[in-house]
Amino acid sequence: MYMWDPFLKAVKDNLFRAKIIFDLFHVVVNFNCFIDKVRNSEYRQA
Predict the structure, then answer these.
(1) What's the sign of the alpha-carbon dihedral 6, 23, 36, 34?
(2) What total of structural domains would you count in the chain?
(3) What pTM does this model have?
(4) Could you report the per-residue pLDDT of 20-46, keeping only the tens digit for each?
């Protein structure tokens, strides 16, 4: 499932019993983006 907030809200509002499962690719991509932001922030502060 896409991790876009409006898409998640639409599913939650209309499909009450649906189980929301994210695919590993999108989880890893978002995690890597987060790690890059933290790494860049730490580098700038050093």
Answers:
(1) positive
(2) 1
(3) 0.62
(4) 999 999 999 999 999 999 999 999 998
Q: What range defines the domain where residue 2 resides?
A: 1-7+20-46
Look up residue 21 and give its two tokens: 């499962």
C-alpha 14/C-alpha 37 separation (Å) is 34
Handedness of CA 37, 1, 10, 8 (dihedral sign): negative
Q: Which helix (H) or strand (E) holds 1?
A: none
Which SS3 state, helix, strand or coil, does residue 37 take? helix
CA 44, CA 41: separation in Å to the nearest integer? 5
Torsion of CA 40, 1, 10, 12, to 10 degrees: -100
